[in-house]
Amino acid sequence: RHSATVDQVLDEYKRTVDAGAGGAMISCVIGGKLSEGVNFSDRYARTVVVVGVPFPNSRDQILQEKLKRISEGAAISQSDAYETLCMKAVNQSIGRAIRHKNDYACIVLLDTRYQKSSLVAKLPGWIRSRLAAASPFPAAFKALGSFFR
To answer: Which is more confident, 38 or 64?
Structure first.
């Protein structure tokens, strides 16, 4: 039943975009059904806004054990493994909007923590090479507008 509801939401969203009614917006949660495994190629996602940095709950016992195993089996620290898990989810979500070489979308990472070098390093190279910090809001809004011109 739940997946039927998701399918209905997606169908309505795509119908609205296809109708050219001036735009449409859909909100998703990183790690949720619409952030992974759904194709929002071409006109179905021209802007992706990631609000916050989706770090998993660091007090979760299962996560702690997973990080411990990862750091023991590889030459990375638990904190680096923790950031990697987080940024893997961000990258997968961003990837829902850009599906082929001629596709495009404006990616907005709406949290100053995305300026941290260790997080930037975990973004794909094609995003890192185009990354620009825009602050305050009017400058960011202007940059967003110029992306589509």
So the answer is: 64
C-alpha 44/C-alpha 61 separation (Å) is 38
pTM of the predicted model as reported, rounded to 2 decimal places: 0.85
H helices of the chain, in order, are 2-19, 61-73, 78-94, 117-120, 125-128, 137-147
C-alpha 109/C-alpha 51 separation (Å) is 6
What would the pLDDT profile of 115-133 be if each residue is shown by its tens digit?
999 999 999 999 999 888 8
Residue 109's φ and ψ, nearest 5 degrees, are: -100, 100
Write the CB contacts of 43 (distance below 8 Å, at least 6 apart in sequence).
17
Instruction: Count Cβ atoms below 10 Å from residue 87 Cβ, excluding itself.
Output: 21
List beta partners, residue 49.
108
Contact 104, 42 (CB under 8 A): no
For tokens 């995003």, name the residue.
127
Task: Give buried/exposed letters for 66-77 (b at 16+ CB in 10 A, else e).
Answer: bbeebbeeeeee
CB 127 within 8 A of CB 67: no
Radius of gyration, CA atoms only, the chain = 17
